[in-house]
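pasting for the record
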Amino acid sequence: MERSPGEGPSPSPMDQPSAPSDPTDQPPAAHAKPDPGSGGQPAGPGAAGEALAVLTSFGRRLLVLIPVYLAGAVGLSVGFVLFGLALYLGWRRVRDEKERSLRAARQLLDDEEQLTAKTLYMSHRELPAWVSFPDVEKAEWLNKIVAQVWPFLGQYMEKLLAETVAPAVRGSNPHLQTFTFTRVELGEKPLRIIGVKVHPGQRKEQILLDLNISYVGDVQIDVEVKKYFCKAGVKGMQLHGVLRVILEPLIGDLPFVGAVSMFFIRRPTLDINWTGMTNLLDIPGLSSLSDTMIMDSIAAFLVLPNRLLVPLVPDLQDVAQLRSPLPRGIIRIHLLAARGLSSKDKYVKGLIEGKSDPYALVRLGTQTFCSRVIDEELNPQWGETYEVMVHEVPGQEIEVEVFDKDPDKDDFLGRMKLDVGKVLQASVLDDWFPLQGGQGQVHLRLEWLSLLSDAEKLEQVLQWNRGVSSRPEPPSAAILVVYLDRAQDLPMVTSELYPPQLKKGNKEPNPMVQLSIQDVTQESKAVYSTNCPVWEEAFRFFLQDPQSQEVDVQVKDDSRALTLGALTLPLARLLTAPELILDQWFQLSSSGPNSRLYMKLVMRILYLDSSEICFPTVPGCPGAWDVDSENPQRGSSVDAPPRPCHTTPDSQFGTEHVLRIHVLEAQDLIAKDRFLGGLVKGKSDPYVKLKLAGRSFRSHVVREDLNPRWNEVFEVIVTSVPGQELEVEVFDKDLDKDDFLGRCKVHLTTVLNSGFLDEWLTLEDVPSGRLHLRLERLTPRPTAAELEEVLQVNSLIQTQKSAELAAALLSIYMERAEDLPLRKGTKHPSPYATLTVGDSSHKTKTISQTSAPVWDESASFLIRKPHTESLELQVRGEGTGVLGSLSLPLSELLVADQLCLDRWFTLSSGQGQVLLRAQLGILVSQHSGVEAHSHSYSHSSSSLSEEPELSGGPPHITSSAPELRQRLTHVDSPLEAPAGPLGQVKLTLWYYSEERKLVSIVHGCRSLRQNGRDPPDPYVSLLLLPDKNRGTKRRTSQKKRTLSPEFNERFEWELPLDEAQRRKLDVSVKSNSSFMSRERELLGKVQLDLAETDLSQGVARWYDLMDDKDKGSS
């Protein structure tokens, strides 16, 4: 192939005496030189060719005058001609420069050895043996292989462009339906590999190579759009850069490498010589724009974080993670300031020197940030923070360029580059860096943030970020990587789904996905003509607060006018997932019944692990160490650290709430029961399942009812983490498999913020049905003054089907233990602790082989009767049994300051101590419909004795339901009326209007009559007159041999208020007369006329018992 005549003379192997005489290496002059021995050629053909060349040149110049003639013919100004001439001259100049650059590059590659020797002034000699580059090796053998393969690679590229790329381009736009490649030639100049560097891999399952590639090719690619008579192409291209090749994973079978990944660490240098209509892009001003656009396209395909993956084995696992692996880390770049910058602004034609208006560009790979402009300042203060993802260490560089802002073209003030490996080694790098290519320095603080899968570190990171001043964006606490894999059974695109202005027929969609977190949205590519698309793409997001943020996924048609499905996923759900990973199918809403999306979501916490960083302590907590300030050895690295006197829990300790869930009723449930083979339609036997905070609850079954009333209360301990959901499902109880009756979800954010929610919720995924729930957040209070009211309120709102309601929340922080007994006298145990309250228990982690374990764990328990319950603690050794135990009555907490004990406790074994914090909080309901009042009454058959009001009563509990306001007794007055001869019974009567129920609580009896030698076995029988059937009869449990039994049992009757006021309540206290007899001994009774009783008060009163003949007197 001959060179261009305008190339000029160049050194050739023939001019070098020591060079071998290879004909292929001769310059063009050698090939064009006439052979004197040939006898000469006839002059005719040469003269004819010369004449034809002259005519062609004349014709071209004549064509140049045609625009001038046309401009004069239509009366245009000569300015148009001059403008066109300027465009042509500019284009010609740029084109000539590119051609000269291409010729120089080709000459460099052809005569590399001679030109290098000439440049180093070592002509006729080779480089000395001591000159070597140990890191980078020349791989000429690899270049010979590439040269041999190059023609076949050209055939592959031609086939790829014609059969794959061209159809994709034609299908992407209706205006490009006639797009074709008319010519695809890679030329004769192959890509060259200048050097190869092999990195010692940090992981044994991969091989890492850096290829310094240089391509100066005579490639020719022509395209045509016949519909618009448009032709364009590329003739010649230069590409220089470092291509990283990763061979992973290494496997124990042929071909030993699972896949090959390729990418450019930094943006390569690109220079393209356009032909055809794209010559317009060679015009000055457009040339750089065109190359930038092409470079952006290449960067989106092959520059980090993007990479090309070529699997070498079938069924390769984790292809998505190989194609888009997690970043190695995050660098937080604090662009603080610069100093000593050069002044670029000039005034009065340079006579007056001004300053500069500096701004900075920060780059790492494809990630670019621009600071604000500081006007008229040579020592600017930016104070801005940026966060970048680092994918390859070593290799990637942080680049900062400083410019002076000008109206036309910004002036360059200098740049600095830094390998990210130095930041990784230092963890925190804070320094002034000199600017190259200019003067001055730039001040950067660089922090390496590691990626952790430990959700427990999140609160520490959030706490630290709150004290960090950052702009323009707040600091991130985590990153989220979403691997978008595929979708199934998306709905077809029909004309009814489109807006009226868009007319489309029924067809398969062209789905694409939009993923959004707050104001950041990323889009996938569009997959054409399928309702089961496969994307296999990855998206990365920075997260400021994963506890409150959520990811919104929209599956749309490529026109963005039609939504094919949607999904909203709270990121708090990831915090409870193993390794912070969700890898599953997700059901799409507003889509087809079987439409779903497969994604893998990976969250990582950004943790700054540096000795320079001290996370702030929790305000309000006691000091971690109680150290004598006069101790001269304080802080010594030789002495043992001082023993702490108090615990140091984290900021989340003691911040839990209790969520009280009241499942009331449902309406319009669907009927699932069928009889006689489905001929007879029945009803349903519904029950409710609740799921929250890793716990599940289940209501009782209501038989044969489509409008059931459960009236059950459940309690669960919750934290303030946003994004939590209460999942509710309703089922029909069957003998084999329970039928689904609907589901609904409740976002707890509203309840946690407002404290109360009372709503009818529509059941989803079923034709009909709704569910009535009441949710209340109970915040523990560190005061015992309201405990009696809480116990009384709980007794009033207690339902028959529910467990006893909690009156307090116990929070335990188990920090450490010391001086535990040794195993067999010489070996250290592997201790762990168990905490038990009632039927609930918590086990700590096991600390291996130590007599002074540090657990740093917390647990919470619901307490129903704080006066009688206790905390049971056991310290056990793995395989050695009990090392010590402790019993802490909760009554001690009730008299402690702030209901909290924080100190060392001695174990019962006499050897060993534990440091723990026990904190009790009283659960006061603000929405129970009950108001505290400090009155107590005593009621007899003849008169009602009022007890005097106690001074210093507790504050009133506010109520959101005025119609349910009740008055409760605080404590029994010491000045009580004496009991009658038969004793007294203590009752609470009130009407619960929300539930439409008459409620009676039998608290107990006192001073009962003893007829025989032994005390009676009393119980209380209640009968709602005038009915005397079983439907209105209630009975307490029986107490053995006591004259003052305590029952505290609740009974309910469902009836309207007006009917209740027409009834009488007959209360009888009885005792079994003997073991063998069915007779009951009447100890006393009282009959209450409900019309004369204030059922809105709900006050506990003592009533005198009478004989059966005197019962009517009450």
